[in-house]
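Researcher: Please predict.
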Amino acid sequence: MPTVAVSKLPALQIGEKVAQYPIIQGGMGVRISGPKLAAAVANAGGVGIISSVGLGLNALQSEDGAPSGKSLSDRYGEATRSALITAIQQARALSPTGLIGINTMVADRHHEALVQAIATQPIDLIVAGAGLPLNLPRLVQRSPHIALVPIVSSVRAAHVICRKWSQQHQRLPDGFIVEDPRSAGGHLGAKLEEIEDAAVSVEQVVPQLVDYIREQLQATIPVIAAGGVWDRADIDRMLALGASGVQMGTRFITTDECDAHDRYKTYHAQARAADVTLVPSPVGLPGRALRNPFIDNVLANGPQVRTQCVNCLVRCKYRDQRETYCILHALNRAANGDIENGLIFAGSNAGRSDRLRPVADLMAELVIDGAT
C-alpha cells in the first residue's frame, strides 16, 4: 500500500483517556523504559510506558541475608512489585496529568500478583504481551477505568481474547498492539521460521484486525502498529494501513530521559545496521538484539556463567533444561552498563541514531506535518 501523507496527526483515544498524539512509547525491560522516559513521553503528548520486567533483581541482589520463610522467587516477586509501585509514583510526580501505562508479560510467573498490585495505582493503561492475557479484566476489576491493551500477532489471537473477555467479563479490549516480527526489538512473537512470513507482517495483520473489529465486533477499538517505526513517514504509513497509532521502542532508547545506563544508550547511538542480529532465548522464541561479546558467545554456543535463578518465567530453558542463558540477569547486566556481558535488545532500525537528544525534541520531530 502506498504511503499516504497526513498533514496533522490525530489524537489517540484508549479507553476513557485521549493522548494528544498517536504515539505509544514501547515497554522495554529491564529498566530501559522506566519512570523518567515514560513521564517525558507523556509530557510531550504521547503515551509513556514503564516496563514491569525485572525491576526487583537489583534490590534482591543487595539484600543482607534472606528473610526467613520466603523463597527466592517470592522475594523477587515482592521486590519487583515494590519497585514497580515506586516507579509509577516517580513517573506520576514528573507527569501529573500525562498518560502513563505499564507493560507486563503474561509469561511472568508473578504476572497476576503484579497486575493486582498496580491496579490501585495512578496509571491509565496496561499493555500485556508475551502470551494471551485471558484473565486480565478479573485482575483489575477494582479499577475499571484502567484501559487494557493486549499485544497480538494475529486476528485469531484477538478473537480468542475478545470471546473470553466478552463471555466472562462483559468487556472488550480498549486497544490492540500488533508487532511486526520482521523489525521489532526484543522477544519476537513468532518462531524463527515464521519471522519473514508476510502473513504475520503489520501490512497484513493490521488491516485484517481493523476489519474484524468493525465488521465482526461492530466496535471502535484502536489498533496500534509496532515494529520498525522510526520517523514521521513510518507513522503515516501505519496510519494509512488503518492503524490508529504506533508504538515505538528503539527510537526512544537514544534519548536523555531513557532510564538505561549511559553506556547502554551510547552503545545504541554508536551501533551500525550490521550489528542488529537475531539471538536464541531461553523462552523458546528468538529475539532481536545488538551484537556484542555476550551475543557472539551465545551464537557460538559458548559456555554461560551460571547465575542464581529466581524462577521468574513460566517456561524457561535455562531453568528447566540448563540450556542457553538466564535472560533476566543478561538484561539486567546490560541495563546496569555492562554492555560487554549483557543482552542489548534492539529493533531493526538500531544504528540510525547517532546521538542522544531530549524526548521533547524527538517528539517534536515526529509530530510535524508530514510531507506530501
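Model: The longest helix spans residues 72-94.
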